[in-house]
Write a structure and sequence with these properties.
single chain, 332 residues, Methylamine Dehydrogenase, Chain H, 4-stranded antiparallel beta sheet, 4% helix
């Protein structure tokens, strides 16, 4: 699908708007859209305004999720691996040079997946096989701490805005682990197969989608208790992402090939937007007007106009796209 005439007319504005998501340094024209390709073992650098892949580099085996430093200059890729060859590394990428700078060896900690960079610059990454959340110092490349959740398939991780807590979605245990800075853990039972998870921008709630039963749990951050469960929102809801303005929660539905736009206040589904096959990863521009959705089984990324509630274009970044992030613009 090619961009519509309306979308093409908006390209200059989009190029400016996505630049708000990183607050780039003087002279930077725009951020780069970074897209991981799980089956291709690659990272694609995409111009978000033209939807053109400008460069592609190799990563470790089967990369799933990606996080970037506060300045957008460094990306960290979790190399998940396969059932026969579980991964145990992070690929470190110089975003401006579009080159791998080094590889961090996690040692005995296998299957790194969910990954975030905290305000302290340290990397938080889950290790499924070790049932743990790792704290990695990027300056030394060492695992400083492994906080054991004791839960099966600790998969995704999110942080509260103040960095005081981490929350992990534990797929096979049906729980969310709330992890304090001191390592104290509260286990929160949710639905079957929790995976997609995000924190509301105001930090008051965590939303987690259960791909196993099609439901969505809402957790009060102050009490660490589920305050509401919405049953049967779609078939295999797999990711949740709030728009930066907090006015929408987007849920990608792996089996029903759609994205839901949910009102965070009323908890009602505003609309269902058809996607390509097996949508997973979601990335949203800072102005909350545009979203990018990775259709893993279609080898495409869709561009959504959130005001209109419809897809305006697609592009092909590689084989099985999934995790995405914003990176700083290419250097001089």
């Amino acid at each position: 699908m090619r961009p519509s005439p309306k979308f093409r007319a908006l390209l200059p504005a989009l190029a400016s708007l996505v630049g708000l998501s990183l607050a780039p340094a003087a002279g930077d024209a725009r951020p780069q859209l970074l897209v991981l390709n799980k089956s291709g073992d690659t990272l694609a650098f995409v111009n978000p305004a033209t939807m053109k892949v400008e460069s592609t580099i190799g990563t470790g085996h089967a990369p799933h999720e990606i996080a970037v430093s506060a300045d957008g200059a460094t990306a960290y890729v979790a190399n998940y691996g396969t059932p026969d060859a579980p991964g145990s590394t992070l690929t470190v990428v110089d975003v401006r040079k579009r080159a791998v700078s080094r590889t961090l060896d996690l040692g005995p900690y296998k299957r790194p997946h969910g990954i975030k960079v905290g305000g302290d610059g340290k990397i938080r990454v889950t290790s499924e096989e070790s049932k743990a959340l790792l704290l990695v110092d990027p300056s030394t490349g060492r695992v400083e701490r492994a906080i054991e959740t004791g839960q099966l398939k600790t998969h995704m991780v999110v942080l509260t805005p103040d960095g005081a807590r981490s929350f992990t979605a534990n797929v096979e245990s049906g729980t969310v682990s709330a992890i304090e800075r001191d390592g104290k853990i509260t286990q929160i039972p949710v639905g079957k197969g929790p995976e997609g998870i995000d924190v509301r921008p105001d930090g008051k709630e965590v939303w987690v989608a259960h791909r196993g039963d099609g439901g969505l749990s809402i957790i009060d951050v102050s009490t660490l208790k589920v305050t509401r469960t919405i049953d049967g929102i779609c078939r295999q809801p797999i990711r949740v992402r709030f728009t930066p303005d907090g006015r929408s929660a987007l849920v990608s539905c792996f089996e029903s090939n759609e994205v839901l736009d949910v009102d965070p206040s009323s908890r009602e589904i505003r609309r269902r937007i058809p996607m390509g096959k097996a949508p997973i990863g979601i990335l949203i521009t800072a102005d909350s007007r545009t979203a990018f959705v990775a259709n893993t089984a279609a080898d495409t990324v869709s561009v959504l106009d959130l005001a209109e509630g419809k897809m305006t274009g697609t592009f092909s970044p590689g084989r099985e796209p999934d995790g995405m992030a914003w990176g700083a613009s290419q250097g001089d």
